[in-house]
């Protein structure tokens, strides 16, 4: 029989330290400051966008802006239909995702389920090096290598133009592969090994465990990786500015030159447009639309992540 525990004598020091934890307080303050900077930056972006955007829509109607098919904001006879910019942005993003999702998800499955620890330690850092390459290098690679390659070996019809959406989308897909692969691999690696062991005990093979067990269990993290990749593609500037061109053209043909929202913002902001002119305010209107698209997409992704989140004990 266990002897009863005698009460602690008077004067015994409590389990909680009497001395204050100054180091923990400093760390908490720094973390709070980091969160505050992130929130403040977002608020600052919104505050900076609202006044010029409101001035823009006092002269141009919202419906005219969203449904117009001509964008010549910097010409003598301006038209303010943003559809050509929006279509080019979405088209190049879709091409990038067609490239990045299969490659990124396949790399994540291999690193998480098939590769040995040593192989994973070698290949994952190499894969993540792609995320550190400057985007201007990707843009030059698309313009100087991918486009001539497509023009020389195009199998049917007219070849791509010198600047085109296809080259920009392909190279942008390569750029976001590390984002999707790394985050998806982290989500898959976080799945408890007991789930894998249970599936193996029932006679499942490696492929079945990867596709039927690990991927559904890590679905929330995989969705978050996809959404982050989409956000990266929507906000990319240098690749589309160099490889896709600066010609606003409402077309779904990826072989043609076109201009995205970010390319217009970069081109107009770095040109000879006066900061006091109405033309300069078009930058903020396009930026506000891009911000709104990203915000809506992130809200939808948060709902999807919460819906498919799996919690393990």
What's the topology here?
Layout (H helix, E strand, L loop, with lengths): L21 H38 L2 H6 L15 H32 L2 H13 L5 H19 L11 H25 L3 H9 L4 H12 L1 H17 L2 H7 L16 H9 L8 H31 L5
List keywords for this structure.
12 helices; single chain; 313 residues; mainly alpha; 70% helix; globular
Description:
With 313 residues, the protein is mostly helical. The protein is 70% helix and 0% strand. The chain contains 12 helices and no strands. It has helices spanning 22-59, 62-67, 83-114, 117-129, 135-153, 165-189, 193-201, 206-217, 219-235, 238-244, 261-269, 278-308. The chain is globular and about 70 Å long. The two termini are 34 Å apart.
Q: Nutshell version of this structure?
A:
With 313 residues, the protein is mostly helical. Helices cover 70% and strands 0% of the residues. The mean pLDDT is 85.
Q: Pairing-aware structural class of the strands and helices?
A: mainly alpha
Strand content: under 5%
Radius of gyration: 26 Å
Poorly predicted tracts of residues: none
Distance between the termini: 34 Å
**Level of helix content?**
55-70%
- Separate helix tally: 12
């Amino acid at each position: 029989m266990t002897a009863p525990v005698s009460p602690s004598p008077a004067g015994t020091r409590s389990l909680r330290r009497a001395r204050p934890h100054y180091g923990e307080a400093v760390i908490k303050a720094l973390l709070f400051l980091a969160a505050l900077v992130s929130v403040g930056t977002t608020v600052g972006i919104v505050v900076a966008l609202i006044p010029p955007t409101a001035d823009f829509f006092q002269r141009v109607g919202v419906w005219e802006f969203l449904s117009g098919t001509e964008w010549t904001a910097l010409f003598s006879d301006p038209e303010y239909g943003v559809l050509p910019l929006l279509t080019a942005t979405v088209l190049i993003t879709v091409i990038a995702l067609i490239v990045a999702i299969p490659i990124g998800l396949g790399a994540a499955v291999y690193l998480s389920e098939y590769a040995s620890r040593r192989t994973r330690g070698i290949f994952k850092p190499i894969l993540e090096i792609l995320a550190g390459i400057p985007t201007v290098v990707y843009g030059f690679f698309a313009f100087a290598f991918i486009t001539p390659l497509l023009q020389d070996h195009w199998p049917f019809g007219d070849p791509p133009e010198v600047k085109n959406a296809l080259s920009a989308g392909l190279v942008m897909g390569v750029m976001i592969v590390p984002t999707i692969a790394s985050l998806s691999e982290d989500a898959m690696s976080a799945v408890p090994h007991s789930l894998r062991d249970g599936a193996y005990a029932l006679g499942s093979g490696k492929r079945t465990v990867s596709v039927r067990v690990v991927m559904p269990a890590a679905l929330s993290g995989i969705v978050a990786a996809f959404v982050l990749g989409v956000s990266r593609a929507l906000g990319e500037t240098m690749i589309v500015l160099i490889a896709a061109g600066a010609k606003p053209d409402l077309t779904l043909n990826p072989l043609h030159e076109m201009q995205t929202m970010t390319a217009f913002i970069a081109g107009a902001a770095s040109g000879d447009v006066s900061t006091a002119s109405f033309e300069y305010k078009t930058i903020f209107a396009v930026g506000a639309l891009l911000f709104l698209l990203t915000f809506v997409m992130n809200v939808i992704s948060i709902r999807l992540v919460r819906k498919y989140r799996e919690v393990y004990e």
